Structures are given as structure tokens and as C-alpha cells.
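Q: Here's a chain of 539 amino acids. Please give me its 3D structure as C-alpha cells.
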Amino acid sequence: MTKSNIIVDNKSTESATKTKAKATLVVEKEVVAKATPKPKAAPKAKAAPKAKAAPKAKAVPVVEIAKKKILFVTSEAAPFIRTGGLGDVAGALPVTLNELGTDTRVILPLYYDIPESFRKAMEYVGSVYVTLAWRTQYCGLYKSVYNGVTYYFIDNEQYFKRAGIYGHYDDAERFSFFSKAVLECLRLIDFYPDVIHSNDWHSALVPVFLDSFYRDNENYHYIKTVFTIHNIEFQGKYGDDLSEDVLGLPADKVDLIRYAGCINFMKGGIESANVVTTVSPSYAEEIMDRYYAYGLEMILKDRGNKVCGIVNGIDTDVFNPAKDKFLVKNFDYASIEDKAVNKEALLTMLGMEYNHNTPLIGMVTRLTEQKGIDLLVARLDDIMQSNVQVVVLGKGDWKYENMLIELASRYPEKLKVIINFSTDIANKIYASSDMFLMPSKFEPCGLSQMISMRYGTIPIVRMTGGLKDTVQGFDPTQLTGDGFTFYSYNADDMLDAIMRAIGTFNCKREWNAIIANAMSKDLSWKASAVKYLELYNKI
């Protein structure tokens, strides 16, 4: 890779300068010699000959540096299809990388659930056949350009023409096909990237297949690989027979994906990638511990020299209270009083009474153990004794859904639980709430705490993973910090943080300061994208 945008022909310039100097010196000597009178009558002095013009310097050749080529491999990407944080990352990080001067493209499956409006804008590229063990499968390829990024879509109706993108009986085969199809499709688009960046277990086999089947091809020989763990809980673990029946790996490569008596896709990505990243520095440290690693701690410790964490950002254009189309009234910090207009409208819509002096705590979350719903359920009765209202939006485990519905029936004026997900209502909660609760058991990065800060809603979080890296506890003596924090996964510690937040809400000077700190924080993708680019350049 060249190291500058312009290469100057220094030798040509230097040679031209020396030639000019030499010509001038010769002329001066000749003029002096011929102008000096001799003993005899000196003839009329001849006019000094004109100096020869120095040769022109050669034109300076300009060579532009080739853009760093990145292929971002993902099982979902906003706005086409998303179920969580990975989709948000795949929709925002490539855009920012291209703004930094790279040629970053994204590839994902062509799911049935991708809206027709996006499908109509896609262009057919071509097709190849993909060998997967004993089977040979058709693979079509489509592309679309969105926000300056080229997206490619892997088409196979047997695998992807069905409702829902995860949770099917043959997910192992579906995403094995996808991972190998990614590599085959490079021939179709004549795009051989400097770096292939895979994400989570669904594309963890890309570096495995690259090393096992493609390295001898000169177009693939120098491709580097990055594998990002967004959530180590989900690893892609399957029976050992998958190796021969689906993957068809050479015998000397099977150990890359075999672990603890089964096939483990994520383990293969960790073993094969040049670099392994997580979505926050604290999470990169935590997954070295048995408590957080879900069985992969020894593999990660052994490969610790290639593991690092880069915290996610958010798309600050999408999450912008000054432009958000879902809000009743847009606002920014200069017009923060209009936040109350949204709060009143949300509570009215939910059938709850609005009181400017009663703080509203919001939650937009999956109702799972990971998200700390156990802590919330354990202390909701205590929380309801305070002057506070709570709104919860989400769905997940039926036991948590039922518990929250039962609790809401006890406090109809103070607690509203919506078992669903809606971007419209989610954004209204982010903008209308005074506080946002995230008592997570673990959190690789988390986006909700950053979105809430963007909307002037103060996060109450457990200090784990990305929550620890993105939220600074408020110090009332210095008026620094942008949230309220607690460390132990303990319901009483969570309750204490909530009570501190409610107490600060009633002190307007402190509350205005913490809102200012939160809304002025740089939560964009730029800083994170710069770190990814530095990483790509190092490997």
C-alpha cells in the first residue's frame, strides 16, 4: 500500500536545478574571460553569448493512493432489515468509513422480509454456484446503493425466502451457505477487498472458508480478516456431524471449529481471523472471564494478543430530536423546554396523567435476563412508592412479559407496559422520558443509553461492558457526568441509583447541568470509524 497521495519526481527537479546553476556559472566565466583586455590592442569585445536555457523540469507525475477496500459481512443491516444492534452498526459504520476515504461495501442475505420498496431498487448482478460439502447451490447476487454505500444481497430462495431471519431449524446450513457464497461472489463483482470484516456467528465461517479453500488463488491470497463479537452468548453451536455433512472442511481444518464436543462457528472465527474485536473496550476485557464468556474464555485468553474493543457509535442524523419525524414537537438543547410537550403527549396517549414535577423513567428493551429484568421486577413495588412514572416497551421471555403485565395492573396510573416493538413509540419514549433505565446483567455495547442521551434523557445503568465505556456517573459537586450508575448486579444497588436520579431531578440546577452534559456528548460514529480504519491499516 502506498503511503502518500502524491509522489513527486524529486530527481527530475533536482537535476533541473543543478543544470540551471551550471549553465549560469559557465556563462559568467566566459563573459569575464572575453571582456578582459590583452596586451595588444584589444579587439572590440564580442557580445557575451546567450546562456542556453536550462532544460524544463519534467512534469510531476501525480499518483493517487488506492482507497482501502473493505467488505463488511453481516446477517442484517439497517435500513433494509434489522433486529438489533448489529443491524444499526452495519447501517452506520460503512457510511462513516466511506466518508473517511475508504471503499467500504456491505453484503448480506436477500431475505423475504426485506421490504418491497427496497427490492424494487435492487439491480441484478449475476449468479454463481456454491459448493457446500456434497451439495451445489444456486447463488444470485443483487446490489443497491444507499447513503453512498454499495450493498450486495445473496439470493437463494431455499434458504432465505421465508418469514423471519433467525431461529430456523437449518440456520447452520443457511449461514454456512451465506459465508461461502460471500467469497464466491467476489468473482462476480471483481472486488477483492483488502479486509473482509465478519460479524457474529452468522458470518464467522468466512475467514475459515477463506483459509481452507481460497488462499491459493492470487486474488484472495492477501485478503486480511476481522471478526467482531457483538454478543458472545450466541455462538452458533451445532452437532459434530455438521463438519462433514455441510461444511466439507479439509481434515486438517476441522479443529478450527470444533470445541467442547460440538461445532462452534464463533470459535472458528476467533481462530481464523487476523484480528478479533468486540463492540466496547470493557466487553473485550470481560469476555476473558468465565462469567461473561459462555465457555470461550480459554480460547480468547490464548488469542488475547489479537483481541481488542472499539465502542460503537450511533447515527446522529437518524437519532436527532431536532429532526425526528416521530416526535410531537422537535427540540434541541436550546429549546429543551419542548421536551415536556412530548412527555405530555406520550402520557396522554398512554392514558396516564401528566405532571411536570413527576419524573418519567423509560425502558426500550428486550425482556430477557440479560437486560436485567429480574432486578426491575424485584423492585418495581418499591419504585412505585416514589413520585415517579415508568413506561416499558419491549417483548421477550413470556415469564417477564407476564410479570410486568401483572405489575402494571396494580399501578395503572404509574406503570405502563407495552408488549411489542414500535420505532414510533420507541423514539417517543427516548424523547419524552426524563430518565432511561438499563440495569443489564451484561451489555456488549448498548445503543439505547446513547440514544437517550442524544434526546436529553438521562441514563441509569449498571457499569458493565459498553455502558461502563459510554456513561459517566454524575458528580453533583463538580457538575460533571451524564448518568447515574451502579456496579453490582443487585436489585438494591439499582434502586439506590434510581433514587439518586429522582433526587437530582428535583434540583433544577443539577438536572439542567446533567442534561447539558448528555446532549453535548459526541456519540457519532466518526471516532469509532477512525479506530476501525487504523486497525484495518495495521493488519
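Q: Can you summarize the key feature?
A: The two ends are 12 Å apart (CA to CA).
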